[in-house]
Each structure stands twice: as structure tokens, then as C-alpha cells.
Amino acid sequence: MKITRRHLLGAGSAAGVGLLLPWHLPTAANAAIPLGVTPFTEALPTLAQLGVIDATGGGTATITMVNATHTFHSAMAPTPTFAYRSAGGTQDYLGPVIVAKQGVPFDLTMVNSLGAHPLATAIDYDIMGVLPADATAPRAAVHLHGGNTDPASDGDPMDFFGTGVSKTYHYGNTQEAAGLWYHDHALGITRLNVFAGLASGYLVRN
């Protein structure tokens, strides 16, 4: 079939009209919102609540991955979570924000103290790399997302470690100022570990 200029313009016009039509999005009536819960009423956590690790002077810090419980909404009961917890911290979801400085290296030791996975029923054992023990003693690997990091400290999905084990990551902070984040990256269960709470911010300042 020969495509003429008229056919091409007609198809483009039809596509354009389609973009102008209203989209039909799910309404509150059919969304999975628990009874008695009003969405979008809870404030996002502040830096004071998340905690801050000041790494602008370099040095070292230790964060422990722990099981916790967190209340996501005042009308909902506390639910099991994971958290990155700083020394003396009270984090029960996500973790402390690390503030680093360009050109000032920093070493971060991560300790895996994780127990039963809060999302164990969602583990897909057909995904490559998932182990039976991930339901009761999940593996972990910490990746600085967007970071200019040496391979040994990159947190590759295969570079995971189990419960009771720790790993020290070296961050040279050789890049320009940026808003980065660190998160779990263990092969096969990254999605569940992050959703359960293993993620937080990493700011490089200059």
C-alpha cells in the first residue's frame, strides 16, 4: 500500500486528537484504599526524622540494616518494615541522609542484621538469584545510585552479603555536587528490600 502525504497527515491528526481526549484514571471508589483512610494527609518525613550523617569531613560511619515497624498513616496499624539505622538512631523505615563533600572520601560500613522479610509472601523464587533463606535471613548489597564509585564499592547485585555479615564501602566523592540515593541491590530481591525500607538519600556538596 502506498502511503501518501494525505494519509500521513490524517494519521498524525488522529493521534493528536487522541492525546487531547481525557484520560480515565482509577477513582477512589475502585482504588485499593483501606476503609477509613484518607489519602494524602500524612506529612513526608523531614531530615530531622530521617536523621543525618555528616560526612563532609570524611571519616567513617556505620549503619545497621534492621527489622522495624512503621506507621504509614494515622488511621492504619503499624506494619513490619526494614530500615537503615545509624548509630544511636531510631529509624524505622528508610534511613539517614548522608551529607558528603566533593573531593573528601568517606567510608561507610553496612551491617546486615535483617531477620524475617516483611514481604516474604511476595518473594518470587523463579527469579534468578533468589534463595530460600531470603524469607528469613535476606541478603543485602548497598548501591550508591548515581555515584562515581570504584567497582569494589559499587554494590553490584552479585556482591551481596548475608545476615550477621558487614561490608565497608569506600566513597571517593570525586563528582560534582549532586543529589544521589543509596539502596539495596541484592540479586533477585532488590525490589522487595527497597520497598520494605532499604533506601535513603546521599548528598554531595561543594
Query: Structural class of the secondary structure composition?
Result: alpha/beta
β-strand number: 9
Uncertain stretches of 5 or more adjacent residues: 17-21
Largest sheet: 5 strands, mixed
Provide structural commentary.
This protein has 206 residues and is α/β, with parallel strands linked by helices. Helix content is 13%, strand content 29%. It contains three helices and nine strands; from the N terminus they run ααββββββββαβ. It has helices at 5-20, 47-50, 190-196; strands at residues 52-55, 60-70, 79-86, 97-101, 106-112, 142-145, 166-171, 178-184, 199-205. It has a five-stranded mixed sheet with strand order 1-4-9-8-6. Strands 3-2-5-7 form a four-stranded mixed sheet, with no helix packed on it. Strand 2 and strand 3 form a beta hairpin. The longest helix has 16 residues, at 5-20. The N and C termini lie far apart (60 Å). Residues 17-21 have low confidence and may be disordered.
Key words describing this protein structure:
206 residues; alpha/beta; five-stranded mixed sheet; 9 strands
Sum this structure up briefly.
This protein is α/β, with parallel strands linked by helices.
